């Protein structure tokens, strides 16, 4: 079969209303409708998260500008990896927000798990608990041994992730047993959605029990949106705490950047503490995590971590 024949066969079988895949266009419209509702109903969240994303972009651009102006730091051979890690993390966060805005909040929730894991590893780096080589598996492939290298590298990377997670929020963290317990429960919710889509499945199963047909495309389930927004706020706060690490030297991004950073930090605290006021224990537990494990030595800027702490 030629490529044109392959395309024509698909077009012949799956054209609806004059369009290939035409049945999907109804979903497009529903996604736009949900997007309008998200803007109207979650104004406070959007103000905070849009401000954060704008600041995040500005920070990356400032860092890139310093590289263009001064070159890569001589005493920071892994600074390029730090910059790449934060740039890539922005895209992952942005992808979650797009899913949220299109009516798929729990799919965004699942992707937040990766953001959490990366933020914890970056915190370990900023505390000099680990190094970039360790984060990436700590091995150099030998000629002809790529498969063995990949196996060992994945194992090393997972071991390092578990070690740092333990130091930041687990048994070796020094956090109170109550805080550890609440953070473990919080982490478990990510896990359940990533593996098997448990939260999404519960939502889907609820409709038939009420005699309602399952929804194809986006939904506007307020509980799902609330769950996503809570996690999005928490991840945003972790990243804000980490962003000064991109400065090549103390206060190299300038006073205006510092002021904006402080405003965002206070704003995220305000939102997370709102959970505490509602009786949600995760609010206090997460605030403790930020204050104790996402506070870094001053002055806080990039340094070449050797993992000695």
What do these coordinates show?
With 309 residues, the protein is mainly alpha-helical. It has one domain. It has twelve helices and two strands; from the N terminus they run H-E-E-H-H-H-H-H-H-H-H-H-H-H. It has a two-stranded antiparallel sheet with strand order 1-2. Helix 10 runs antiparallel to helix 11. It is globular and about 60 Å long.
Number of helices: 12
Number of strands: 2
Q: Determine the mean pLDDT.
A: 90
Strand order of the largest sheet: 1-2
Cα-atom radius of gyration: 22 Å
Q: Terminal Cα separation, in Å?
A: 61 Å
Quaternary status of these chains? single chain
Q: Percent of residues in helical segments?
A: 55-70%
Helix-strand pattern: HEEHHHHHHHHHHH
Shape: globular
Structural class label: mainly alpha
Low-confidence stretches: none
Return the domain count.
1
Strand content: under 5%
Task: Characterize the main sheet.
Answer: 2 strands, antiparallel
Please tag this protein with its features:
309 residues, mainly alpha, two-stranded antiparallel ribbon, 12 helices, 2 strands, globular
Describe the structure in brief.
The chain is mostly helical and 309 residues long. It is built from 12 helices and 2 strands, in the order H-E-E-H-H-H-H-H-H-H-H-H-H-H.
């Amino acid at each position: 079969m030629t490529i044109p024949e392959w395309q024509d066969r698909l077009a012949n079988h799956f054209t609806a209303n004059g369009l290939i895949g035409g049945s999907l266009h109804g979903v497009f419209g529903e996604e736009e409708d949900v997007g309008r509702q998200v803007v109207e109903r979650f104004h406070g969240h959007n103000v905070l998260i849009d401000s954060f994303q704008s600041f995040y972009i500005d920070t990356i651009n400032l860092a890139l500008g310093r590289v263009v102006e001064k070159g890569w730091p001589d005493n920071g051979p892994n600074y390029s990896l730090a910059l790449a890690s934060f740039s890539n993390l922005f895209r992952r966060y942005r992808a979650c927000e797009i899913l949220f805005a299109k009516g798929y909040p729990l799919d965004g929730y699942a992707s937040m798990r990766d953001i959490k894991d990366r933020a914890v590893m970056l915190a370990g780096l900023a505390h000099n608990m680990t190094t970039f080589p360790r984060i990436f598996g700590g091995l150099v492939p030998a000629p002809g041994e790529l498969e063995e290298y990949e196996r060992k590298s994945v194992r090393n990377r997972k071991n390092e992730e578990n070690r740092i997670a333990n130091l930041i929020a687990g048994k070796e963290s020094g956090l109170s047993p109550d805080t550890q317990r609440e953070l473990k429960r919080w982490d478990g919710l990510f896990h359940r959605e990533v593996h098997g889509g448990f939260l999404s499945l519960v939502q889907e199963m609820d409709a038939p029990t009420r005699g309602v047909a399952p929804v194809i495309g986006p939904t506007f389930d307020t509980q799902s949106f609330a769950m996503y927004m809570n996690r999005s706020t928490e991840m945003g706060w972790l990243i804000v705490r980490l962003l000064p690490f991109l400065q090549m030297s103390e206060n190299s991004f300038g006073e205006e950047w510092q002021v904006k950073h402080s405003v965002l930090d206070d704003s995220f605290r305000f939102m997370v503490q709102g959970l505490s006021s509602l009786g949600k224990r995760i609010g206090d537990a997460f605030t403790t995590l930020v204050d104790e494990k996402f506070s870094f030595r001053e002055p806080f800027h990039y340094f070449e971590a050797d993992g000695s702490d």
